[in-house]
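Reference record
================
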Amino acid sequence: MSEKDADGAVKFRFRHTMLPVADMERAVDFYTRLLGMQVVRRRSQGGDGREIAYVGYGAEGTHPVLELIAGTGDEGKPWAGHFSIAVADLTALCATLEAEGVRFTRQLVAPQGGTNELVANIVDADGFEIELNQRKGGIYN
């Protein structure tokens, strides 16, 4: 049975974004050490050689997570999208990322209009683009 809201409509919630990664330990290190996520869960996918790690900013099921999968054969294939992470102090984070040699596709800027106070785009070790933003009025406004 599905959950429904007060109007009887079925409710939906974002669960995860899957990213194929070439090196699981390198990917987990990037997202945990540099972007402050925690490993929520790890598992192997039977005998097919796939390894899966879920990383995020809270418990899986209550917060969206990234599902990192190594051994899919999809490593290195083009991906045209990006995902976004809200950051409380983007200036400090960008300084840390620059010192770590992280590649920026957009340097830290203050865009005109919109809801973002500051924005920067980086690329992880597998080539996935990540938009980092600091929102006007606070991290989640």
DSSP finds two helices and eight strands in the chain.
